[in-house]
Amino acid sequence: MPQRVFIVFGGGADQVWLRPLRPGFRHCFAALADEAGWTVLDPLTGRLVVSRLGVPMGFDLPGFYRRAGLTVLGPFRPSEPRARCLPPLAPFSCVALCRAVLGGEAPFAITPFGLFRSLNKMAESRKNILTTEWNCR
């Protein structure tokens, strides 16, 4: 089973400098599913939390997060890393971590809401491509 990535958005603002961000999109983190289970990567202020969850194989973690009031996008398949001439110039943030997990094809974004909009747009265009009928005559 290929690795699947879900990006989870939340609105908690435990830091004063997060309050200007859009409510509901003040933080994001990644949940990865593979054949062994779920891994959550959550960049908190001052540290990165990596958790391997002890839940059954068929557990619906995205559904759990949705029921908890969070916004979940995915699944995405991480793309291959791509070569760069320079290192990324953006500071380490929750958005930078989620973009790194998604790989080289991740859209550029600075805020969690910007990442949400870009990923949602990508998912919509992918959906349109997969559901559009082509008349090849």
Question: How would you describe this structure to a colleague?
Answer:
It is a single chain. The protein has 137 residues and is α+β, with helices and mostly antiparallel strands. The chain has three helices and five strands. It has helices at 61-67, 94-102, 112-131, and strands at 4-10, 27-34, 37-44, 47-52, 71-76. It has a five-stranded antiparallel sheet, sandwiched between helices. β3 and β4 form a beta hairpin. The protein starts with a strand and ends in a 6-residue tail after the last helix. Mean pLDDT is 85; it is low at 128-137.
In spatial order, strands of the major sheet run 4-3-2-1-5
Largest sheet: 5 strands, antiparallel
Instruction: Give me the strand/helix succession.
Output: EEEEHEHH
How many E strands? 5
Low-confidence parts: 128-137
Shape: globular
- What's the mean pLDDT score? 85
Strand residues, percent: 25-35%
Rg from C-alpha positions? 16 Å
Q: What is the number of helical segments per DSSP (H or I, 4+ residues)?
A: 3
Fraction of residues in H or I helices = 25-40%
First and last CA, distance: 37 Å
Structural class: alpha+beta
Compile the SSE list and pairings.
Elements: E1 4-10, E2 27-34, E3 37-44, E4 47-52, H1 61-67, E5 71-76, H2 94-102, H3 112-131
